[in-house]
Automatic annotation (TrEMBL):
One Pfam family recorded for the sequence: GDPD
Protein name per Swiss-Prot or TrEMBL: Glycerophosphodiester phosphodiesterase
Alphabetical list of PANTHER family matching this protein: GLYCEROPHOSPHODIESTER PHOSPHODIESTERASE (PTHR46211:SF14), GLYCEROPHOSPHORYL DIESTER PHOSPHODIESTERASE (PTHR46211)
Domain GP-PDE positions: 20-289
Amino acid sequence: MTACKTSAPAAQEKPPLPAFDLEGHRGARGLMPENTIPAMRKAIDLGMTTLEMDAHITRDNQVVIAHDDFFNPLFALTPDGKEIPKEDAKKYALYQMDYAQIKTFDVGSRHYGNFPKQQKMKAHVPLLVDLIDSVQAYLKANNKPQVFYNIETKSKLAGDNKLHPDPENFVKLLMQVVEKKKITPWVIVQSFDPRTLQFMHQKHPHVRTSLLVENKKSLEENLKTLGYTPTIYSPNYKLVTAELVKKCHDLGMKVIPWTVNTTEEINQMKALGVDGIISDYPNLLATQQQ
């Protein structure tokens, strides 16, 4: 399929999701600084079919790729290379900063104890638009097949208009970038916040959505809250059972758990019949697929 090799993927048809979806969590968090362009390239190098990432909005309404509401004091450095004291972290809320300022922070040079294999390098929080451009160019230059983008909206009710826009404006800003870059068929929007998914479903019903789940409620309860059946049900891997997988499949949903970081856990998930895996260690997923 020639469309798979282009720098701007063909937007007419929605391609099928991978038979078994290999997702690099925050790119390749176990190996490279999370949610950075180098992490996405590493995931591509290791054969991932989907790049998983987190979206935030800046004060000047730019869509950036970052997980936390604030610069994380565990690994972020200020523009002058200093560590951020834990008690000062809330001074650095992304939604209260313009992108020009955000870009000057270093999120890759400092040792991150949770991920000792992570390669250290100077890295910054990227704009989604720049990340897409870089990924598409990298795919083309290396003759790699088109990947999917699984983008999480980092929002919750308590943070509205303090840590992020309201759901409607969050989705509007995100989809402006996605549509401008012509990658809509290759995008999945995921969230723990049912409000952003509900708005996606109303305004962009053609875009695939994924409900992230970490609560102990039943599948039925979570779908009732959401109000529709998403493309993907994405629970914490510890919540996955064969019964849950069967129920989801019967409803036409795929099951893609997070965050599965050991070979043993990967094998357990596969035995339960999941449709893909989100992992901090794409190298483990790559080994499994060989």
